[in-house]
Design goal:
The protein has 31 helices and 32 strands. It is of the alpha+beta class and 855 residues long.
């Protein structure tokens, strides 16, 4: 065999040599000329070499796979700077094939390296450290790109070498540039401070917000002695409590803290909201600097203060409930409204401030809001810690964009004052302002409520009417009448005590509701108590008046099951008491029920009488008693009903006054009388005028002057062809309106007369001021002359009044020659009565007085 040289023994065999050796060993192992033992050894050597080569190839493939898997360019460099290997990322980065780089000096990749650039690399690697440098490498097309190269030592194929990993910095440089541009472009201030809180960077927005000039150093401009730092409540903060200092000390982010910066020289206060982020060095456990991000919220702070003030003025506070942890937030005004310290911080705490029933109502509404997303709007009542009650309107809704309704927000509005005002108005609406008792509407509602309740429906109604009240009211005036009503109300209250509910039902009428279930005799006993307490006289303006009461009693359910029916029954009983002589009480009876039924029938038929044309007029002439001439004809109404027959005026006129039907009836009478007057004039019957009675309800309930003017115009009559007769009641109803209406009627030329003068308690003061033409002397006084001296005296007095005031006078009820002679001697020239004629139809009047008014 040929001997190898030492150099050949040291050098590793090439792949070609290994394959040749394997082939030779394989050939020799099968050469029969070689002893079998030797051939066996040769075969073993062949197998061992073959396995070794396979292991070598597997290691090479593993190395190449790992080498090419590194995403950054990796180079294996000989100690002298020659490139020994390059991975796939390097070929892609340098845009060159491997063959163009391997075997070339490192300057091929970086032509800008300085001379002796390997010296610091060797020094670092020999110390066992990694050499890091930022350089610019070159691609195959000549373009450059920045890299950060980390170089470490290694042994490669048994030789001392280096591995260099290059990180492309192009993206990082771009990102850093964009980050810096972003920081400069932001409208929020950014300041970076080192561990000593010295400012190392401030963006443009920070300089602008803090008022730092272009030529100023930011650290000089922000020296502590120039600034006073306060918290959001205006309390001074020491430097260690600044948000940036707290972030450095704790190593935690300090979020959204409001601070105030007051510049001592400029005397200017600004408010900032600051978030401070500590920044740690690589591998460090303490912050090396802190970044503060802040915004100027001076305007927002001012608006928030104004909003808080507005909330306080409007008594509106806000609340927010975070459901899952049950956290409740209340604004300052909301806390003030609830009036508990400490303020509730859970929803149950807020509910505990409310009354029991309202607490459950609000709890149920909160549940509806959470389960179904419904809004809530409730008015509830509660008590503050000092015991005072309050009313609050609670409004709430689920937060928008919250699919599981985990948070509710809303407002609390203090409506205590409004509720008190409403209660005052409610009391006023239910109370009679003169007596302080319940008014008509309130007692009707209470009566209906009791009748609807089976447990309270056994009750009685006492209808109380003051006897002779109109005497005081007419003689002394309304003010005295009001004082009398107030005094009477107090007496009734003393008589009833706690045994009944008292109301002023209208005018001089009172209503009392009392329970009869526990004491059936209570209504009569209370009625006796009222009569007894009215036994003492009333004193008004130094005078004593004896005022008694007439009382009607009706009981439910015997006398009525509805309020109106029961009150009507008591009213019927009260009028029966008056008929029996006043100053007493009367219970409702079946006989009175029959009368009431008749009254209801009368009311029903009366309401339809005008439309059914059941009314007609008769006319009683007014005669000049000196010569028998007709000076006027008074229109008198008559009613003929198909079911009830002929009904006298005294049976239905008062009822029509009570129900208000008199207004429609009166309008019909006025229209029919004027129509007849027109017909008489067209027929040549010269009756100077027609007289029509006017109810005080017509006078008060409508524009009487306009109605009269329209009727006169319709029939083409002058005003003096119509005479309107009023009762004395009109004189005292409402003086200003009375004067205006009388003046308007007189301007039309209408003759105005006060009927039945002397029957009431005439208000002579009003009589003197009203523009009337005449008086009618009541037949009550005419019938007693000349024998009854009292009637004679009254007739003389009325005549004197008329003469002194320049008023015409007509005597009513002239039925005998003695009446006429007395009146003529007294100077009364015009009269009417049965002596001359009863009421006549228009045809009868024409036949009896064919030349009326022509004498």
């Amino acid at each position: 065999m040929k001997r190898r040289t030492p150099a050949q023994e040291i050098a590793p065999p090439s792949p070609g040599d290994a394959k040749t050796t394997l082939a030779a060993l394989q050939h020799a192992a099968h050469d029969l000329a070689i002893p079998a033992a030797t051939r066996g050894l040769l075969q073993q050597a062949h197998n061992a070499l073959s396995q070794s080569l396979a292991d070598c190839e597997a290691e090479r493939e593993r190395y190449r796979s790992l080498f090419d898997a590194v995403p950054d360019p990796v180079s294996i460099i000989a100690w002298d700077g020659t490139v020994l290997d390059l991975n796939k990322a390097g070929m892609n980065a340098y845009r060159r094939p491997r063959e163009e780089i391997v075997g070339q000096p490192i300057e091929t990749l970086n032509p800008d390296l300085p001379q002796d650039h390997m010296v610091p690399v060797w020094e670092t690697l020999n110390r066992g450290d990694t050499y890091v440098v930022e350089v610019t490498n070159m691609r195959g097309d000549g373009t450059r790109f920045p890299v950060e190269v980390h170089t470490a030592g290694l042994t490669f194929d048994g030789r001392k070498a280096m591995v260099a990993v290059a990180r492309d910095l192009s993206s990082r440089h771009t990102a850093e540039l964009r980050y810096r541009e972003l920081m400069e472009a932001m409208d929020r201030g950014i300041v970076v401070q080192d561990a000593e809180l010295q400012i190392t960077y401030a963006n443009v927005a920070a300089m602008k917000i803090l008022g730092v000039g272009q030529d100023e150093l930011v650290n000089d401009a922000l020296r502590g002695e120039q600034w006073l730092v306060v918290d959001e409540h205006g309390r001074e903060l020491p430097p260690e409590r600044y948000p940036s200092a707290r972030a450095l000390q704790s190593g935690r982010i300090i979020e959204s803290t409001v601070v105030g910066l007051y510049h001592r020289l400029r005397q200017q206060l600004m408010w900032l909201t600051v978030t401070c982020v500590p920044q740690f060095p690589a591998g460090g456990d303490k912050p090396q600097q802190v970044l503060s991000l802040f915004s100027d919220v001076t305007r927002l702070k001012r608006d928030s203060t104004l909003f808080d003030r507005a909330q306080s003025m409007a008594h509106i506070g806000g609340w927010e409930w975070d459901v899952t942890p049950d956290r409740l937030y209340l604004t300052d005004e909301a806390q003030r409204i609830l009036g508990h310290r400490p303020a509730p911080d859970t929803i149950e705490g807020m509910l505990a401030c409310l009354r029991g029933d309202d607490r459950e109502r609000l709890r149920a509404s909160l549940g509806q809001a959470l389960s179904f997303g419904r809004n809530l709007d409730l008015e509830v009542q509660g008590h503050r810690a000092d015991g005072r009650s309050f009313w609050v309107r609670v409004i709430g809704e689920a937060e928008a964009g919250d699919p599981i309704n985990s948070r509710l927000t809303g407002t609390l509005q203090d409506i205590t004052e409004r509720k008190h005002d409403e209660e005052t108005l409610r009391v006023q609406a239910r109370s009679d302002p003169l007596t302080g008792l319940l008014n008509r509407d309130a007692v009707l509602a209470e009566l209906e409520s009791r009748l609807d309740d089976p447990l309270r429906s056994q009750l009685a109604v006492l209808y109380v009417d003051l006897d002779r009240f109109k005497v005081v009211n007419d003689v002394l005036g309304h003010a005295a009448g009001d004082r009398l009503l107030a005094s009477a109300a107090r007496r009734i209250q003393r008589a009833i005590g706690n045994e009944g509910l008292i109301a002023r039902f209208g005018g001089d009428e009172f209503l009392i509701l009392c329970d009869t279930g526990s004491d059936p005799s209570r209504p009569e006993r209370l009625a006796d108590a009222i009569l007894e307490i009215f036994g003492d006289s009333f004193r008004l303006d130094g005078e004593e008046f004896s005022i008694t009461a007439s009382i009607g009693i009706a009981q439910a359910p015997l006398d009525g099951v509805r309020s109106q029916q029961l009150i009507q029954s008591a009213d019927v009983a009260m009028y029966d008491s008056k008929r029996r002589g006043r100053n007493g009480w009367q219970t409702f009876t079946p006989e009175l029920a029959e009368q009431q039924l008749h009254r209801l029938q009368l009311e029903t038929h009366l309401r339809r009488a005008v439309n059914n044309e059941e009314f007609h007029l008769v006319y009683q002439p007014q005669i000049d008693m000196r010569n028998g001439d007709v000076v006027a004809a008074e229109a008198l109404i008559r009613w003929r009903n198909h079911s009830l027959g002929e009904i006298r005026p005294d049976k239905f006129i008062d009822h029509a006054e009570t129900t208000g039907d008199i207004v429609g009836i009166g309008d019909w009478v006025l229209n029919e009388a004027c129509r007849q007057m027109r017909e008489w004039q067209d027929a040549g019957l010269k009756i100077p005028r027609v007289a029509v009675n006017v109810s005080y309800r017509q006078f008060l309930g409508e524009d009487l002057a306009s109605t009269v003017a329209a009727v006169l115009a319709e029939y083409g009559l002058p005003g003096h062809a119509l005479e309107l007769e009023f009762t004395e009641r009109v004189l005292i109803e409402d003086a200003p309106d009375t004067l205006r209406t009388f003046a308007a009627l007189r301007q039309l030329g209408v003759i105005l007369t006060i009927d039945d003068f002397g029957e009431g308690y005439s208000a002579l003061n009003y009589l003197r001021r009203l523009p009337i033409h005449g008086l009618k002397l009541s037949q009550l006084f005419v019938q007693g002359v000349p024998d009854n001296q009292s009637d004679v005296a009254i007739c003389q007095a009325v005549t004197g009044i008329a003469r002194s005031l320049g008023l015409a006078l007509v005597a009513e009820g002239v039925e005998t020659e003695q009446h006429r002679d007395f009146l003529l001697q007294l100077g009364v020239h015009v009269g009417q009565g049965f002596l001359f004629a009863a009421g006549m139809t228009p045809e009868e009047l024409r036949e009896r007085y064919p030349a009326a008014g022509m004498a």
